[in-house]
Amino acid sequence: MNTHDLMDLLADAEAILLEPRPVFDAALVGMAWRGTNGPLANYDMDRVLAIMEDEWGESAEEHFVYDVLDTFCGPHSPVFTRALAPGPPGGDPWAAAGWAS
């Protein structure tokens, strides 16, 4: 599936996308489901934060948590994921991604 097909699928499903689209579409990594709701827009949380840091600087993470991540706009709200870093062989991928295990 290419980006154009993904955007068409999300539009047909009435998925909520982050605005401004020309800025945040770069952080869109796919689609997800929340129970039977979906497909939903699936954004890479680290990419969204990096984009927001350009605009809000040090307050980007606080803004993201309170004004984006904690905002639920109904069943079509986007999903935010963080990929696990592979880490060293036999290591803890959660720790390598910056999460406590």
How many structural units, i.e. domains? 1
Number of strands: 3
Proportion in helices: 25-40%
- Whole-Å distance between the termini? 33 Å
Broad shape = globular
Alpha-carbon Rg, integer: 15 Å
Strand order of the largest sheet: 1-2-3
Please state the structural category: alpha+beta
How confident overall, as mean pLDDT? 84
**Total count of helical runs of at least 4 residues:** 5
The parts where pLDDT drops under 50 for at least 5 residues are none
**Order of SSEs:** HHEEHHEH
Let me know the largest β-sheet: 3 strands, mixed
% residues in beta strands: 15-25%
Description:
The protein is an alpha+beta fold and 101 residues long. The chain has one domain (3-83). Helices cover 40% and strands 18% of the residues. It is built from five helices and three strands. It has helices spanning 3-12, 21-24, 45-56, 60-69, 93-96; strands at residues 28-34, 37-44, 79-81. A three-stranded mixed β-sheet has the order 1-2-3. The longest helix has 12 residues, at 45-56. The protein is globular, with a radius of gyration of 15 Å. The model has no long low-confidence stretch (mean pLDDT 84).
